[in-house]
Design brief:
This protein is α/β, with parallel strands linked by helices. Among the domains are: about 70 residues, Alpha-Beta Complex (Outer Surface Protein A, domain 3); about 220 residues, Aldolase class I (TIM Barrel). It contains 15 helices and 14 strands. It has a nine-stranded mixed sheet. Helix 4 runs parallel beside helix 5 and helix 10 packs parallel to helix 15. The chain starts with 11 loop residues before the first strand and ends in a 6-residue tail after the last helix.
C-alpha cells in the first residue's frame, strides 16, 4: 500500500470529534476547535473508512480535517493534557482582571425564585466606597485590562456609586482597556441612567423577561404587584433610541410553570420595535437555596430538550438564534485567580450565587494582607483531572466538568446541555444551511 495513503504516525482523529449522520452525508463537529464540517455521502464513506483504518487516499479530506483540528498530531492523552494546560494558563496568568461588584444588595423586585431572599440588603457605605477606590488603585499595579460587571441586588438602585467607582477605574486604567456590563431587572433604566451608561461606556446589559405580562408580572414583581413588564419594554425602547450601541441581552428564566408561554415574548418585542435589536436566550431556574423545592425546575436533560425546541420554533423570527457552544478554556471565573465577586460590604466571594452568604466569603477589601483561607483554597485548587468520565467525554472542551460550585457543594456534577442536545443542534444548523442554499455549514 502506498505510504501516502496511510496517516503519518503522529496524526490521528481527534477524540473531540462528534459525528452526526444526515440523509445526504454527515456532519463532523469538533468541540475543541468549534469547527463543523459537512460531508456528502462520498466523503462520509471516506471518513468512516478513516475512523476504522486510519487510512485515507484523499489528500483534500486530510488537509480539511487538519485545518478544523479534527485530525491532530497528538495522542488522546496529549490532547487532554494540552486542554488542561490551556485551562491552567487561563485561570492563573494574564494581564486582565474581572470584577463582579454589587454596590447594593437591595432590590425593588420580589421575585419568588430569587436565591438572594433573606440576605441583608446592604448598600456600600462611604467607607466601603473609599476602600474600593484604594483596591482599584492597587489593581493597576498588576493588571492592564479590567472588566467590571455590575450586579446586585438591583445595581441601578445604587447608580451614583457605580458612577463614582467607574470614574475611579478610568483614572487608573487606560479607557481602551476597560470594559463594563450590568445585570439589571430593567425597571429603573431611565433616560438619565442610559445617558450615563453611554458616557461611562457600560455597553452591555442583561435584563430578564419571563414571559408575557400576565406571567412575567407574577415572577418579576414589585412588592405592590404593579406592572413591570411594560415599564421594562418602554425603558428598553427608549434606551436603544438614546444608546443604539448598547448590547441588550434578554434572559428568560424558565421552569415548568412558564415554559409553554415564553414564545409570546416575540410578539411584544416586535410591537416595541425591539425584535431585531436585542438577543434572547433561555436559562433554567437554578435550584439554589431551595428555590426549586416545589419540583418546578428542569434537570439538565429536560432543559436541553426545551432549549433546542425554543431555538427551533423561533429561528426564523430572530430571537431563537442558533449557535454551537464555544470552547470553555477558562472553565469558570470562580476558579480563576483573576476573577472576584465583591458585595456591598466589601467582602470577596468567588461565585455570583454565593454573594451575601457570609459563610462563603473568601476575604475582604479591608484586609491588610490577603490570606488563602479554606474556602478560597477549595476554589483555586479545583480540578476535574481525576474524573475519568469527564476525561473520556468528547464534550470536555465545552463543559469542563460543569459548574464548579455545584461540584464543590454537592460532590456531583451537572453536565452541559450540549451533551443531551448536540444531535438536534447539528441537525438544525444543517437544516438552516440547506434552506439558505449553502454548501458548507
Amino acid at each position: 500500500m502506498p505510504l501516502s495513503n496511510t496517516l503519518e504516525n503522529n496524526l490521528q482523529l481527534s477524540k473531540y470529534n462528534v459525528v452526526e449522520y444526515t440523509e445526504d452525508g454527515a456532519l463532523v463537529y469538533n468541540t475543541n476547535s468549534g469547527a463543523i464540517l459537512k460531508l456528502n455521502n462520498t466523503y462520509k464513506d471516506k471518513y468512516n473508512l478513516l475512523m476504522k483504518t486510519q487510512i485515507t487516499e484523499d489528500t483534500e479530506l486530510k488537509h480539511t480535517l487538519i485545518h478544523g483540528k479534527m485530525l491532530v498530531n497528538q495522542t488522546y492523552r496529549e490532547e487532554t493534557t494540552k486542554l488542561f494546560l490551556e485551562n491552567t494558563i487561563s485561570r492563573f496568568s494574564g494581564n486582565h482582571v474581572g470584577l463582579t461588584i454589587a454596590p447594593t444588595m437591595a432590590c425593588n423586585f420580589r421575585c419568588p425564585y430569587c436565591y438572594e431572599k433573606g440576605k441583608e440588603y446592604a448598600t456600600m457605605t462611604p467607607e466601603t466606597i473609599a476602600q474600593m477606590k484604594k483596591y482599584i488603585q492597587n489593581l493597576k499595579n498588576s493588571y492592564k485590562r479590567i472588566h467590571i460587571t455590575w450586579y446586585g441586588g438591583e445595581p441601578l438602585m445604587a447608580f451614583d456609586i457605580i458612577k463614582e467607582l467607574m470614574e475611579e477605574v478610568y483614572q487608573n486604567f487606560d479607557k481602551k482597556y476597560v470594559s463594563s456590563s450590568a445585570v439589571s431587572n430593567g425597571y429603573l433604566l431611565t433616560e438619565n441612567i442610559v445617558s450615563d451608561l453611554k458616557s461611562l461606556n457600560i455597553n452591555r446589559i442583561q435584563i430578564t423577561i419571563d414571559g408575557p405580562p400576565e406571567i412575567h408580572n407574577t415572577r418579576r414583581c414589585l412588592p405592590s404587584g404593579d406592572d413591570t413588564f411594560y415599564v421594562i419594554l418602554n425603558n428598553l425602547k427608549k434606551a436603544l433610541e438614546l444608546y443604539p450601541e448598547l448590547h441588550v441581552s434578554i434572559r428568560v428564566n424558565v421552569d415548568k410553570s412558564n415554559i409553554n408561554r415564553i414564545d409570546e415574548i416575540e410578539m411584544h418585542l416586535k410591537e416595541y420595535d425591539l425584535l431585531k435589536k436585542v438577543s434572547v436566550y433561555i436559562a433554567p431556574v437554578a435550584n439554589i437555596n431551595g428555590t426549586c423545592s416545589d419540583g418546578q425546575c428542569f434537570n439538565v436533560k429536560e432543559f436541553a430538550l426545551e432549549e433546542i425546541n425554543f431555538i427551533r420554533r423561533n429561528q426564523n423570527n430572530g430571537i431563537g438564534l442558533i449557535d454551537v457552544p464555544k470552547k470553555n478554556v477558562g472553565m469558570c471565573g470562580a476558579v480563576s485567580l483573576n476573577s472576584w465577586v465583591i458585595d456591598a460590604k466589601g467582602d470577596f466571594y468567588k461565585c455570583w450565587d454565593d454573594v451575601g452568604e457570609i459563610n462563603e466569603k473568601v476575604g475582604s477589601i479591608f484586609d491588610e494582607s490577603f490570606e488563602i483561607n479554606k474556602k478560597l483554597l477549595d476554589w483555586l485548587s479545583y480540578s476535574i483531572e481525576n474524573d475519568e468520565e469527564c476525561l473520556q467525554c468528547p464534550y470536555l472542551p465545552i463543559c469542563m466538568g460543569g459548574c464548579p460550585n455545584y461540584r464543590i457543594k454537592n460532590k456531583g456534577k451537572n453536565c452541559h446541555p450540549i451533551k443531551e442536545n448536540v444531535n438536534q443542534i447539528l441537525h438544525l444548523i444543517y437544516d438552516i444551511s440547506r434552506q439558505k442554499g449553502k454548501d458548507n455549514v
